[in-house]
Amino acid sequence: MVHGYANRTLYINLSEMRIQSKPVTEEMKKTFTGGRGFGLWLLWNATTPQTRWDSPENELIITGGPIGGITQYPGTGKCTVLAISPLTHTVCDSNGGGYFGPYLKFSGWDALEIQGKADKDVIIFIDGDEGIVRVEEAPLEVLDTHILNRQLTEMYAKDEEDWRSISVISSGQAADHIPMCGLNISYYDPKRKDTRIKQAARGGMGRVMRDKRIKAIVVRYSQMGPLSNGPAKPELLRKAGQRINREIALFDASQNDMRHTGTPYLVEIMNRFDLLPIENFRYGSHPDASRINGEVWKARFDTKYPDGCWYGCSMSCAHSVPHFHLRTGPYKGEAVRVDGPEYETLGAIGSNLKIFNPEDVLEISFYADTYGIDVISLGNSLAFAFECYEYGILNKEITGGLELTWGNADVALELIHQMARGEGFGVIVGHGVRFMKNYFVEKFGADPQLMQDIGMEVKGLEISEYMSKESLAQQGGYAMANKGAQHDEAWLIFMEMVHKQLPTFEAKAEALHYFPMWRTWFSIHGLCKLPWNDIIPESNKTAKEPQKVPEHVENYTWLYEGVTGEPIDIDGIILQSEKVYNFQRLFNLRLGFGTRKWDRPPYRAMGPVTAQEYESRRERYDEQLREAGIDPTSMTTEEKIRALRKMREERYEQLLDAVYKRRGWDQNGVPTLETVRRLGIDFPEVVELIKKASQQKN
């Protein structure tokens, strides 16, 4: 390791059974930095505009980043997974914790790219201690994560003391059948003597993995130490680490209590501000939400020992519920550990389905994880199907006798088990919201406009669990995100709705430039975002822009210089991200997407679709009409809905114009030639793409 880089990537072609080392050039570092940037560049060169998710040349890429793997600062154990997605058909990236990203890099590889398809199930084994890479025939029948990851941990370790040296990536049996499956990344918890998991869940990477006949990827590295990353200036790492660790020790308990509650603390806040999704995002609050809020989980989490998912992470927010007894499915009666639930889980399979029983939430969460199913896509897809059942678009004959009614946890579980078995109506739900919208129109005569309006997905990716009806900035954050509607790119709902910091289109556009670029930087470097803004330093009280947490931004400049030896400021950070972000936008353009028409959310993310929704917040919506100069007094509810919709859709188009201008894109959402030249990504194929897009528009 030299200053955060192994300076080579690992290429495996499963069709040819070929293993190859590729160099990382200085030009590659200069342009793409690492992490997601490296992954996009490798995938771009491996594929063509005709490549689809199940094409042999599509790659599964896993990469960390130059800062990732340090032990002096919390949240540095992330990896990013990339592929052309079976859900979105565009380039999708998903990040996950655990040990795999750092172990892969310390084993000598800045990225792993896997191409082709094996003839039979295989395991890829990367032994960083011995300097060996092997592709082996998979020896085990089981696919489900909670069993497989533990078995492989024991199988590939030298002895019990070596278990912590192993990290396993797998999916689960549902990934053989449905596209909404992600990857489970293991780490061994020596205090609890258990194999734990984190997820890179979004976009269907587990489906790509299983299509390539990969049962698991195993990495072994046992030489962990504070200098494993080869830092240039370790004193800067210590300086940053000491500052934030002191803040966590002093303030965490009185702020978000990440050490004991974790992200479930958000349930109460979102419910209070009418931002918690209820019934497929129809409503934003419910009186029963208190049954799954942070205090409920704080009492159930096993916090006897620290809960970090990487060495030295003092945030310790990777909580779990031990000894949970399952009541359904193939493991009925067994006691298991359930990792999480996180806030997104509680929003997706809890409040959005009106399932407020903690026992049911844990059962669904466990099976989603072990089967490899992304809970966000799962929850939104179930909620969409439940609402269609309510409207009579679906019936018991179509669903195989199942009553898809709100709060029906038994039906939700049966559909999940069907996804894992590859049978029944569950497989249709498991293909996601975009698929169901078209399927229900073609097969059951559903109204296409209604399907579009209530289908909570953008670009084929189901929307994260925040109600954005009243937050124009969050609507843009979801809909303009490169990979589809995911909060890790632009989470602006609090800035706009609670702190009232984005009053103008210009302010919104600036936020929708800065924050997606800032957040992209974390995926370039192998970092978790939670230490940035889930602990707040005292200096934030007098900061000019507190939403940016400037003291923590300074910490990251120290980390970058500490690892690489190169000084950087916030402008340099944003520039690194702009290169990667704009290149991903152009990659999507190459695949037939990446323009303005793909940047629009479903209307329910913008406003009330049905009379029922409008009437539930009538005073709010009537007042908004009056503010726009429209007297709602003599209007029917349907007329008011149409007037409000026209106003909100026009406002959203104005937002697109403002954001595109700020980002250096044309009015069709394509980066201009001037922008790509400024960023140094004006490769010949990129230039031709932009010129072609301009000609087609004209």
How would you concisely characterize the structure shown here?
This protein has 698 residues and is α+β, with helices and mostly antiparallel strands. It has 27 helices and 16 strands.
What can you tell me about this protein's structure?
The protein is α+β, with helices and mostly antiparallel strands and 698 residues long. It has 3 domains: 1-251 and 515-606, Aldehyde Ferredoxin Oxidoreductase,  A, domain 1 (4-Layer Sandwich), CATH 3.60.9.10; 261-300 and 319-462, Aldehyde Ferredoxin Oxidoreductase Protein, subunit A, domain 2 (Orthogonal Bundle), CATH 1.10.569.10; 621-660, no CATH class. Helices cover 42% and strands 12% of the residues. The protein is globular. The mean pLDDT is 96.
Strand order of the largest sheet: 2-1-6-3-4-5
How would the global form be characterised?
A: globular
What is the rounded distance between the termini? 50 Å
What is the strand content? 5-15%
Largest sheet: 6 strands, mixed
Average pLDDT over all residues = 96
Which CATH C-level class of the largest domain is it? Alpha Beta
Count of all domains: 3
- Under the CATH scheme, the architecture of the largest domain is 4-Layer Sandwich
Gyration radius, rounded: 24 Å
The total strand number stands at 16
* CATH homologous superfamily descriptor of the largest domain: Aldehyde ferredoxin oxidoreductase, N-terminal domain
CATH topology of the largest domain: Aldehyde Ferredoxin Oxidoreductase,  A, domain 1
Protein structure class:
alpha+beta
Alpha plus pi helix count: 27
Low-confidence stretches: none
- Give the % helix: 40-55%
